[in-house]
Amino acid sequence: MDSQLSFRRLEVFRLVVDERSVTRAAEILMVAQPAVSAQLRALESWVGATLFVRRGNRLVLTEAGERTNEWAKNVLAGAAQVRRDVGDLASGDTGRVLVASSMAVGTYLLAPILATVGKERPKAEITVSISRPEEVVRGVETGEFDFAVLNWDEREFSDATTSEVLSSVQLSVYATTDLVADGATLSLGEALSLPLVGAPREVVYQRNLVAQLRNLGHDEPHFVIRLGHSEAMVRAAVEHDWAIIAPEYAVGAGGPLRPVDVPDFRIEEQIVLVHRRDKHFSPLQEAALGAIRSGLSRMAPPRDHRE
């Protein structure tokens, strides 16, 4: 049995688990496939068990592999925590905080809140990383990020993490006055028949929207186009006199898109905080969390598109 074990070997193993492919892991690491296979063989030798079996063109964890995967997550998360915590001072004026977020939440809500925290603590290092919600959660699980704030649907988080709803935000239908006259009231069916701009089907916001519409007895409406960023969605709706369903913070105030009165429209998104259960927050991280909780409880004022 190989008596040597390195964080690098565990990182390679975790990447193969996530990608379910040695080939894909090698491509991401930009190394030859045999180098990845050698790391896996060495880890199997170290634990004394087979970690993967092949099913079709995918690698699947054995029972021993599942146990090793959970252990590797905790080891790597602990190592990442130690690297970040060293050097933090008890005052919270210095140190680092790494926050992960989904696109709209991170761009429109977290950015101004954490910019204020940074201004108050000029020696602190504050980073907000924007990514897909699934990748954000994975980064929290592995300890890459201190915590995440994002919009989420009804799926369960892993046992390694804990979550807290910070805010429930109402979604509304927005349209230009050329499409829907100012002051007009529409039924939900009429609103869903408007030419709508949506997000790709796999996006959490879109999945959440469709699921809630179905709970109200409505099928997924037709979307004239699906775009991956709220800025692009707003621009398309404005330029082509289309409509969008979105939270106010992502649309802005005073612009050409106005909220449409739809009395039966009761759809919201939840903004949640996610972190590892074993996470110990530094004073700076606690300060950042406090600012986010306070800011989201009031909800930041919408952006002004008249700039």
UniProtKB/TrEMBL annotation:
Task: Specify whether Transcription regulation is a keyword of the entry.
Answer: yes
Q: Which GO terms describe its cellular component?
A: cytosol
Report the protein name in the record. LysR family transcriptional regulator
Q: Which UniProt keywords apply?
A: DNA-binding, Transcription, Transcription regulation
Q: Show the GO MF annotations.
A: DNA binding; DNA-binding transcription factor activity
Q: Does the keyword DNA-binding apply?
A: yes
Q: Record's family?
A: Belongs to the LysR transcriptional regulatory family.
